[in-house]
Every structure is written in structure tokens, then in C-alpha cells.
Amino acid sequence: MRSWFIGLVFGMLLCATGAHAYDPLDPANCNGADGNDDHALIVARVTATPRVNFVKSPFDDDFKATQCPAATEACRNSTYLVTGDLVLTGRVRGEFICVTYQSPTAKKHIWTSGWLPSNALTPVAPMPQPQLTDWIGSWDQQQGEITIKRGAGGKLHIEGLMAVVGANDVRSAVIKADVAVTSGSDTVAFVDDGSIPFEKRNEGECWVRLQRIGPLLKVEDNSACGGSVTFTGFFHRKK
Predict the structure, then answer these.
(1) pLDDT tens string 186-202
(2) Do residues 43 and 123 touch, judged by C-beta distance below 8 A?
(3) The pTM is what?
């Protein structure tokens, strides 16, 4: 009985050790381009030709890629992006940058995250000094839509719905706000219904940041607009 108990405890310890092999705070692990309350995520375009492979994090290969990220064949992932793909960029580690990518043709709101060589990317600047008409329109993504219209007093009236279909349920997030636009700014940012200044937001309040990037509308939020669902990503203007 005693030996059985010792074996059970030993097995539990082994399981516990394995469970802690993945450390989400390990700076070598890329978990995606994290949003920042104070600074907009930077968009970059893949300029490597004809493609660039993702680079592994230590938790890949059943936690055996301990020497990654590195410019080695062992750290080279089979997944890749092609020239022209757009990504959201995060922190830098040596010669690599942590990115998040979403296929514009995917039917689901699925992101791919990982390290890419920094020299395979070129930052994309937001549209300089967008006018009111540059924001107005219906913008859609695979599982969501944002409509921007002229509001009262020169504001923008913004409404959006994101619905993510799961195995057993549908989770959704909603935004509805009237937002004043700062002349010459490349960013529209608001909290909840737009009545609270963005710089005075409180923890837990839904905040959203919009930027025009080429023909796209880039959206960021803090996943607090309902249902643990995020609007973050690229939206295309409906014709």
C-alpha cells in the first residue's frame, strides 16, 4: 500500500512538472502581438520572396524546441506567409519579431501567431491625415461587421457586431458609439459609447482603436466589449 501511494505521488509530481513546462510569460515564447492601451499595434507587410516560414517557440514540438527562436533548420516551422501578407507585430527578440496573422479568405476568426525574421517585414504606415469620408462605410470581416456613418455634431456614429461560432454556442461582442474625430489624426479611439475620453478610460471598460491602413480598416480592442470576443483585425470595405 505504501509503495502504491509513493508511486501515485511521484506520478502526480511528474504531471505537475509537465504542466508547468509551458510558461506563457517566457519571453522566448510568441503568443501573438499583444495590444497596448497607449500605443497602436504596428502593421507590417511580408516583403520576403516568395515566402517566409514561421520560427518556433520553445513550447513547440511538445516543448522540445528549447533552443528556439533561432536561425536554424530545427527552428524552422512548416507554416509560412507569402509576399504581401499583412501582420500585426509585437515584441522583438534578437533578429525575430512576434507577429499575428489572419487570412483574409478564412471563414473563421482564426489567428496564426509566431516568430518571423524581422528582415522579412516592412512596416506599413497608417493613412496620413484621413478625412471623414475615409472612415465612412460598411466594413466586414469573416465573422463581424462595423458600420461607420456621419453622426451629429461632426462626429462618427460607429456600430459593430462580432459573432464567433463555437462548438456549442455563439459568443458575440458589440460596439456602439458616437465619436469626435480629431482633425489630421490617423486614429479614431473611443471607450464604450464614446462619452468617455480615451485617455481617461478605466480598467474593464470596452475600448476600441481604429486606423486606416491602405484600403483596410485596422481595428484593435481589449476583448472587453462582450463575450470574450475581440474585433481586433483587418476589415474590408464593402462595395
Answers:
(1) 999 999 999 988 989 98
(2) yes
(3) 0.82
